[in-house]
């Protein structure tokens, strides 16, 4: 049978197909090749910077089957956003002597502007894991094994289209065997760009903190395992940066890591060998196990089991059962916390290490507290040498830092709390665009920073315009020079990677944020508009964009800090929003913060500010236990004189105040610690709630005269709380009544300012509190309001950039007026 007979029907058709979405780095071209060959079709496929292009020719029924496979059976890691199909003139030369080969994979083209086409980094697949565990396999125990279904992507790619020459693997020349696999259409590694093996790929090295090489290859891995079992701290170069590892069952080792990392209280994440081990230590649902085992492989927040040691040691199928008793995760891993952040091994290196260690391991970012993660060996030696006892590294460069993602199971499914590995840079569809869509760079906020780039994509054969936001991986707090440098590189990286010059730059309204200052510089450099967006408005807009909500919404935007256009610190807001416009419908009654920003880490200051608002000089009587005599005199003086006492409507600071009044720690080591303690203390069997008052602004003595909002007055709540404390009511009951009171407060506001059925959005860092989020959502739903919460971006400041980009898009397109009546 000749080529013409094999591939072309008597009445062939030819189609030109453009496939957009996550279609590079997921084995899409090999899939197209195999599918076309199976249907006896002719043509070609190639990567381009913005899509995958296909031309295919053959029998009409075979073409229909081919298109059906593209739409419904693509590779498991692909995401198809659009398939555009056009008829082409049949090429009669196909099948003739000297004519084109029947179907081929062509060299990538760079003609188009780059667009989001590649996946996030992918956890090791079952096939690759079987290879590293098989003694007869040539990749047996090779820690950099990967294929088209798994391995590094975003952390190694330098530019599009996605080819090896444009990744950090370019310097590793393939050996003959890897080259044969790479070129074999029937092989799982056909066009797998990070392909490697022990002969030609990256290798491990072990260093001491002074930079002296101690071992390499398998010996380096064995030395790291030995160090962990001996209670030492190991810095390991992972997929997107360095991590710090220590035995989670060794109390002294965990305490030493806390001292050296300067992280006294914030919980550590734990890596466990398998899903069976997760079940031994935590309560976990089938959906949570699926997420742990998925190609994203994030950290999942799970409730701890009360008797993890008994469960672990009684599970005979678990590798933990063979270890000596007692084997329990020490309290110092997540002190005073009913949840454990758990992840499974997600790279071959992690799998090899965990199989031999066979116990829970603390796995936390490779940095000193408040600093960014190290990604190079040189940087790790300089910054982690004082923390780690040994460093296990490798010579595959990391192009950009990618930290571990954090998720939890919420009422609507999995909710992302930190968006990084496994999720970035997957694009998010942004609704509401009309006409030409400007390219917008959004620089986020100051805490938990992420950066977003909004891109308009014209579909050649469709009248619609797709608008997508590509978000950087989690950057973190911009409190250090090193962190600001990483933030600037993240912003520059997005612009350079997609080869665009933004039409506008958008940032927070706060004039002193590092992100605001850099936005001003970039807007001047490019001579483009600078759009500034109010912090809590951006929070609401992020959730609106996620759910593609149309028309007005009422957003409860509750968090710790946000710059208000009235000169106060906002944070307990109910905003009526539509497009680029918002109205401050209601907010918490303001109170003074003695010492300003110091209150973030000192809940006692928020408590004193509230008590002073209620009691004046008598507040000192309640606060005497929190301060020494000199401190209380100084603070009472500045409160009376209104010096360095900014006013705030912050819900986060109200949480802090209540926690301090309840007797929880008056000073904390990280923002949100007091609110977490209050949440975890709540008695689930307490159904009472504290009272509050809702009144027009003019009826509240401390409200601004120009304030047209309704005021949520916390004074009745705090008075009831003080009475309960005096009567010896438990902290658990007080906490539950406080959370329940806030839920009733939300319903009262919604009924007062929103028409029936208006969509309600819950956003801001306070809604990372599962108890608060659940109770507010439940009460609003029962009152007849449709309620929306975040899923694919965090409710906290990690989602701000998406909301900023959404609002700037509407402002620049003129779809709505600029923000009005901000309060």
Task: List key phrases describing it.
24 helices, 7-stranded mixed beta sheet, disordered C terminus, 4 domains, Nucleotidyltransferase, domain 5, 11-stranded mixed beta sheet, Alpha-Beta Plaits, single chain, 823 residues, globular, disordered N terminus, alpha/beta
Protein model, in words:
It is a single chain. About 30% of the residues lie in helices and about 20% in strands. The protein contains 24 helices and 31 strands. Mean pLDDT is about 90; it is low at about 1-10, about 310-315, about 460-465 and about 815-823. A hairpin with a 2-residue loop joins strand 24 and strand 25. It is globular, with a radius of gyration of 28 Å. The chain folds into four domains: about 5-105, 2-Layer Sandwich (Alpha-Beta Plaits), CATH 3.30.70.100; about 205-395, DHBP synthase (Alpha-Beta Complex); about 410-545, Nucleotidyltransferase, domain 5, CATH 3.30.420.360; about 555-810, Nucleotidyltransferase, domain 5. It has an eleven-stranded mixed sheet with strand order 7-6-14-8-9-13-10-12-11-15-16, sandwiched between helices. It is α/β, with parallel strands linked by helices and about 800 residues long.
Topology:
Layout: H1 3-7, E1 13-22, H2 28-38, E2 42-48, E3 51-58, H3 60-72, E4 79-88, E5 103-105, H4 126-133, H5 176-183, E6 204-207, E7 213-216, H6 217-229, E8 234-237, E9 242-247, H7 251-261, E10 269-271, H8 275-281, H9 286-292, E11 299-303, H10 308-314, E12 339-343, H11 348-357, E13 361-365, H12 377-384, E14 390-394, E15 406-410, E16 413-418, E17 428-429, E18 440-442, E19 452-458, E20 465-471, H13 481-497, E21 504-508, H14 514-526, E22 530-533, H15 535-547, E23 553-563, E24 569-578, E25 581-588, E26 591-592, H16 603-615, H17 619-623, H18 629-641, E27 647-648, H19 651-662, H20 673-681, E28 693-696, E29 710-713, H21 715-726, H22 731-753, E30 760-763, H23 770-782, E31 787-788, H24 800-813
Parallel strand pairs: 2-5, 8-14, 10-12, 11-15, 18-21, 21-22, 23-30, 25-29, 30-31
Antiparallel strand pairs: 1-3, 1-4, 2-3, 6-7, 6-14, 8-9, 9-13, 10-13, 11-12, 15-16, 17-20, 18-19, 19-20, 23-24, 24-25, 26-27, 28-29
Helix pairs in contact: 6-11, 8-10, 15-24, 16-19, 19-20, 20-22, 21-22, 22-23
